[in-house]
């Protein structure tokens, strides 16, 4: 196994608008598109972290609808940052609905944020995010554990 510097708990939130388009952000650190996501802070629940991260990155208020899955496979959950730090994430992924706020790129972490048609997603997606999207769109009652 390659070098891993840290293990972190993360959250990701899949948000669909009324037209069933997927909300993605273009990250400033790696210049790739991805689902709004981030770290869980000490003293925070996974749902609190998900709500906070979405607000910070998109200015949207959300309500968690369901758990999509928990992802820990090092083959997809190890992320190399531009500063060469390598982190293994255990990510809890949720499906959420928008309850308020106005969409805007609200963070130094994002270059752009917008909705995409499910069939027309950008090619430059972070490597773990297509699986999260596929699982969310599978419309399965039970959560995935991968």
Give keywords.
single chain, 146 residues, alpha+beta, Nucleoside Triphosphate Pyrophosphohydrolase, 6-stranded mixed sheet, 3-stranded antiparallel sheet, 3 helices, 18% helix, 42% strand, globular, NUDIX_hydrolase_dom, DNA mismatch repair protein MutT, NUDIX_hydrolase_CS
Descriptive report:
- It is a single chain.
- The chain is an alpha+beta fold and 146 residues long.
- It has one domain: Nucleoside Triphosphate Pyrophosphohydrolase (Alpha-Beta Complex).
- The chain is built from 3 helices and 9 strands.
- The strands form 2 sheets. Strands 1, 4, 5, 6, 7 and 9 form a 6-stranded mixed beta sheet that branches. Strands 3-2-8 form a 3-stranded antiparallel beta sheet, with no helix packed on it.
- A hairpin with a 5-residue loop joins strand 2 and strand 3.
- The longest helix has 13 residues.
- The chain starts with 5 loop residues before the first strand and ends with a strand.
- The mean pLDDT is 93.
